[in-house]
Design brief:
This protein folds into 2 domains: 46 residues; 226 residues, no CATH class. Helix content is 79%, strand content 3%. It is built from 14 helices and 4 strands. The strands form 2 sheets. Strands 1-4 form a two-stranded antiparallel sheet. Strands 2-3 form a two-stranded antiparallel ribbon. α2 crosses α12 and α7 crosses α8. The two termini are 24 Å apart.
Length: 344
């Protein structure tokens, strides 16, 4: 009995040490990320325009990636219809400016509201379905809207798209223009940081624990009395709204939107970002965005068929780390924590 108690005590001590070491490691990582972010924001006025453009694109796509990770990584729902919310967010902003003459914040709110309504309607229909049917139905919805957007040139401009003059941003008596690359960089970076910590807060909350359990074992949650449909729908809506936000910001950056925003490629890209960086990590999809966007911005200028090289890189990565870059790092940290706790 004494040995048993001592064994339990050792396990508790080991667990405590592992948690403490993990918190220290996580704090250091957040500290380093914070230093890098602050440094970039300070140096932003000195950076070349193409570098600022690259970082703005990373910020916008990272919002899409982490929003999708909540659905794909945490609740294990693979949607091929998120390009629909991306396109609706973009056109919600663009058409509001063109036809309703709303200001910046009003147009942004309309884009988010339309994304929310559409995510709610499609979610009600699709999340009740099994995984394979869920993928098919979301892809069908996306394809329907894509076909309509191509043909409704009177509304969307078709594949040629529509352009706008982005309204000035007003914060009280202070005004900003996104036509200034530095201001645009600051704006998108602040939005990304806000979205990241908001989703991190959701993931670390009791609601997030339900999402994690939902992705691991739905039957167990059912036996515990949880309404699986309600939580899957909620995750779908949250993910759809942040995807719409990303589409809105992308429209603001380009001052343009086209029917191609509804294309299937915009539903496949977030899956690639999450798989490269690591699902169920939030930070991992951002790493995936950085790598993919680097190829898109710089390698493509050196070699037209850059996607071949990128595909080979993905194959090699999945061969050595199926759980993605951040997943691999977390796994190694876990081993290090375990070894340190055993040595102590």
């Amino acid at each position: 009995m004494v040995c048993s108690v001592e064994g339990i005590g050792e396990k508790m001590k080991t667990s405590t040490d592992m948690i403490s070491l993990f918190r220290v490691t996580l704090s250091r990582s957040l500290f380093h990320v914070s230093i890098i972010t602050i440094t970039l924001m300070i140096l932003a006025p000195l950076l070349p325009t193409h570098v600022l453009s690259y970082m703005i694109t990373i910020s916008i796509f990272s919002i899409y990636a982490i929003g999708y990770d909540l659905l794909f990584g945490y609740t294990n729902q693979t949607s091929l219809g998120h390009s629909l919310f991306f396109g609706v967010g973009a056109y919600g902003f663009l058409l509001s400016v063109l036809h309703l003459k709303t200001d910046f914040w009003g147009s942004l709110a309309i884009g988010l509201f339309l994304s929310f309504i559409l995510a709610l309607i499609i979610g009600i229909i699709s999340v009740r379905l099994s995984e394979s049917y869920f993928v098919i139905v979301t892809a069908i919805f996306s394809n329907i809207f894509y076909s309509y957007a191509l043909n409704a040139t009177w509304l969307t401009g078709g594949s040629d798209g529509l352009s706008i003059n982005v309204p000035t941003i007003y914060l009280g008596n202070i005004s900003f223009s996104v036509y200034d690359p530095v201001i645009n960089f600051y704006f998108n970076t602040i939005v990304l940081v806000f979205v990241y910590f908001l989703l991190k807060r959701i993931v670390d909350s009791p609601l997030g624990r339900v999402f994690i359990a939902l992705g691991q074992n739905q039957e167990r949650l059912t036996y515990l009395g949880y309404n699986i449909y309600r939580y899957k729908l909620l995750a779908f809506i949250i993910s759809g709204v942040f995807t719409g936000l990303s589409g809105t910001l992308y429209c603001i950056r380009l001052r343009y939107a086209s029917a191609e925003f509804f294309g299937i490629i915009w539903s496949i890209l977030p899956i690639i970002w999450c798989l490269i960086g690591g699902r169920k990590t939030l930070l991992g999809p951002c790493i995936g965005v950085i790598i993919f966007t680097f190829f898109q911005f710089y390698i493509s200028s050196l070699w037209t068929y850059y996607l071949i090289f990128f595909g080979l890189l993905i194959i090699i990565l999945f061969r050595f780390s199926p759980i993605g870059i951040v997943g691999y790092i977390n796994q190694r940290w876990g081993r290090q924590i375990h070894e340190n706790s055993r040595n102590n």
